[in-house]
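== Sequence and structure of one protein ==
=== Format: two labelled lines per protein ===
==== Data for this protein ====
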Amino acid sequence: MDLDAVRTFISVADAGRFQEAAAELEITQQAVSKRIATLEKDLGARLFTRTARGAQLTIDGQAFLPHARALLQAAEKAISSVRPGRRALRVDVVAMRSAVAASLRGFHEARPDVDLDVVTLPNADSAIAAVQAGTIDATFRFVAAPRGLPADVAATRVLDETLDLLVGPRHALATARTATLRQLVGHRIWIPGIAAGAEWTLYYEELASAFGLSIDGIGPHFGSDHLLDVIADSADVASLVGVKPQLAWPAGHGLRRIPLRDPTPVYPHSFLWRGDNPHPGLAALRRHLAASREPEPPSSADPVWTPPTSAPR
């Protein structure tokens, strides 16, 4: 749809006269008439009735007006999201259905006044490069070697995501109340989406190496629904899932989340940003993350495992 024509329609509707709209838009009255005629042709509806008092909206015109305003607002928001000096805080998350995305939703609910754009980049390298370039303001990632980060990129560990074992009703561990990582030896653990060079791939490689596990991402990745279907139908395939993202599956699947103990595997998420980024929303997000950070468990609690290369708490 021609947004200039939509803008002209709104101007005529507000002014009530084609001549006044033309003056406001700094175009000729003939151009206004042509734009409205084209818009009416595209919509297949008459939008105005010309009277001695000016241009009056038809019933179709009245119905179209709020949608026309919404179109222009959406267009302006789309443009401002990529315009130099954009206002929205742009943050990368590894996946929309993830613990860090849930944390970001919490920030949005607490601070709805901060305009927020959420994107997903393919891996930590591309996300860090985008932070450096300023195309995003921050990212949540597993940082394997903080000391290897670029000098202008800061990082702090903000979220430790506990992993559960996910099994179907026919799996050998389906009736267990808890399980240990050592009990998973000899069982296939499927993590679809594992890709060379991705930081989560490094995490699972280190986990597999530490406990002698068989973890793979063999086969196509059609999303979480496909993963749940495969696990539900299998007697020998399990997966690892974070405890915070809410996974919903049909009642007939009979899936079970089984807590892992002694130690509990934890996926450490760090928050990364460029140190000289002055965006006020970034400072607000950092304060929110610091305030909502879960305290470190006491030493008597069940031990946890994170890769030796993880960023410190």
Summary: The chain has nine helices and 13 strands. The chain has a mean pLDDT of 87. Residues 3-80 form a domain with the Arc Repressor Mutant, subunit A fold (CATH 1.10.10.10). The first strand starts at residue 48 and ends at 51.
